[in-house]
Amino acid sequence: MTRDLYTHTVAGPRRQLFVTGKPEYMGQVLASLAVSLGPLAAGLGKGYSSPAIASLQQRDADAFSVNGQQASWLASLSLLGALFGAPLGGLAVRWGRRRTLVLAGAPLSACWIMTVFAVSVEVMWFAAFFSGVLVAIVQLSAQVYVSEIAAPSIRGGLSALLKVAGHAGVLVAFTAGAVLDWRQLAGLISLAPAAMCIVLWKVPESPGWLVLRGRDEEAEKALRWFRGNTVDLQLELAVLQAHVITRPVNLNPKLMFQTLRTPALIACALMFFQRFSGANAFNFYVVSVFKETFGGTNPHSAAVAVAIVQLLSALLSGLLVDSAGRLPLLVASSVLMTLALACFGSFAYYKEANPKTVPNLDWIPLLCALVFTVAFSLGISPISWLLVSELFSLEHRGLGTALATSFSYLCAFVGVKTFVDFQQLLGLHGAFWLYAFISICGLCFIVCCVPETKGRDLTEIDTAR
Questions:
Q1: Residue 5 burial (CB < 10 Å; 0-12/13-18/19+)?
Q2: What is the first-listed, main subcellular location in coarse terms (predicted)?
Q3: Could you give the percent of the chain with pLDDT greater than 90?
Q4: Which one of 97, 214, 271, 393 is most buried, counting C-beta atoms within 10 A?
Q5: Rounded to whole angstroms, how far apart are CA atoms 404 and 177?
Q6: 429 or 251: which leads in pLDDT
C-alpha cells in the first residue's frame, strides 16, 4: 500500500501531493521568513567589512591602527572560517535542522558583540573567523530546512527568499555604515541572529528529518503546521516514510560515494562557475574597479546602485524560479553574464589604451556592471544554492550540502584572493575576459549536465537519478 502511494505521488503530469484544493502556504512562508533572519545576518556581515575598514582607518583611527594588510585579512577571514564551518554544519544538521539554527544563532550574535568591544585588530580577526564558521552552519541549515518544509510549487520561491535576505543585509550594512561607526554597526548586526533564535523557538522541525529519525507522530504534527488544516497529509507522510524504507541510511563508503557522486559533481561545478564568474570582483572590489574605469562618476554611488539592483533582481528571481524553471534562468543568466563581462573587459582595455576618455562614457561600465548583477542575481547565484538542497537524497542531504558548501567557500576565498593577481598578470581587461571565458564554460556545463527540478518533489528527484 505504501509503495502504491509512493508510485502514485511521483506519477502524472502535475505531480501533486495534495488531494483537493490548493496547498496552504502560510506556515511555510512564516517559517521561511523566520529562517531568513540567518541569511540576513550573513548579508550584514558580508557588507560590514567595507564601511568598517573605512571607519577604522579614517573616522575612528584613534581606537587602534589598522593597515592595509590587516584590513585585507579582516575582510577575508570570515570566508576562511566558512570553509571550516560548512562540514561542521553538515554534521550538525543530522541532529536537527531547526535545532542547529537555534544553537548557532546565539554564538553568532556573541561574535558580533565581541567585535563591538574589540580592543585590537586581533580580536576582530578572531570574531570574523568564528562568525564565518557560524554563518556557514546557519546558511547550510537554512537552505536544507526550507527545501524540506516547502511544497514543490513554491520551493524555488521560498529558497530564493534566503538570497533576498542576504542581499538585503548587504544593502542595509552599506547604508547604515555611512552613518554608524564600526562598533555601532557591529552592534546592529548582532541583533539579527539573536532575533532568529527567538522567532524559531516555536517553529516545528523539518518533517523529513523527523521521519528519518522514526518520529512519525511529530512529523505529522509538523506537516499540519506547515500545510494547514485543509490538506490531506496522509499521502505526503506516506511518501516520506516510503522513501526512508526504500532508501535506508547506508554508511558503506563505497555505496555512499556512488550515491553522492553525480549530485556532488553537479553541485560543486555550479559553485565553481558561480564563484569564478567575476562576482567577487563586483562584490569585494567594486569601488576600486569603478575608480579605474570611471572618468567622473562617483564610484561609491555606483556601488550602492549595484547593491540595490542586486536586491531587486533576487526578488524577481523568487517570482520566476517556480514558473519559468531552473534551467531557462540558468541559461539566460550565463549568456548575459558572459556578454556583460566581455563588454566590461573591452571597455577597460579601451580605457587603458586611451587614458583621456570622455567622462560621459562612464555609463558603459556601469551598464555592464548592472547587467551582470541582474543576470547573476536572477540565475546562477540563487539557483545554484537551490539545486544543492534539491539534488541530494534525504539520508545524505546534510553531508552532500556540506561538501558543496565547503567547496563553494573555498572557491570564494581563492577567488577573492586571486582577483588582484589576475589583474596584475593580465590587466583589468584580461581578468574580466578570463571571467567571461569561465562563464561560457559554465553555460556549456549547464546545458549538458544540469537537470530541471521545477515542480518535482524532493523524493521524486532522488528516485529519478
A1: middle
A2: membrane
A3: 27
A4: 97
A5: 32
A6: 429
Residues 459, 454: Cα–Cα separation, whole Å? 13
At CA 157, angle to CA 212 and CA 94, rounded to 5? 20
Grid cell in block for residue 122:
586581533
Model confidence, pTM: 0.73
pLDDT tens across 228-259, in order? 776 667 777 777 777 665 555 555 566 666 66
Helices (H), 22-154: 26-35, 37-46, 49-54, 68-92, 97-116, 121-149
Residue 49's SS3 state is helix
Give the span between the Cα atoms of 230 and 30, in whole angstroms: 18
Helix (H, G, I), strand (E, B) or coil at 95: helix
Cβ neighbours of residue 289 closer than 8 Å, sequence gap 6 or more? 281, 282, 428
Residue 193 in contact with residue 108, Cβ under 8 Å? yes
Least confident of 15-29, 176-190, 440-454: 15-29
Contacts of 346 (CB under 8 A, 6+ apart): 429
- Tell me which amino acid residue 186 is: A
Largest CA distance in the chain: 77
> What's the CA gap between 463 and 393, in Å, rounded?
9
- Closest by alpha carbon to 121, among 180, 191, 187, 49? 49
User: Any residues with CB less than 8 A from the CB of 321 and at least 6 apart, and which?
Assistant: 156, 157, 159, 160, 329, 382, 383, 386, 454
Measured distance CA(183)–CA(129) in Å, rounded:
17
Under 8 Å CB-to-CB from 341, ≥6 apart: which residues? Answer: 277, 278, 368, 372, 432, 433, 435, 436, 439
Task: Dump the DSSP string for 341-393.
Answer: HHHHHHHHHHHHH-SS--GGGGHHHHHHHHHHHHHHHHTHHHHHHHHHHHHS-
Separation between Cα atoms, residue 70 and residue 130, nearest integer Å:
17
Instruction: Provide long-range contacts, Cβ within 8 A and 24+ apart, for 55-61.
Output: 55/177, 55/181, 55/182, 55/185, 56/182, 59/181, 60/181, 60/182, 60/183
Could you tell me which of 462, 212, 458, 436 has the C-alpha nearest to residue 342? 436
Residue 75 C-alpha cell reads as 575582510
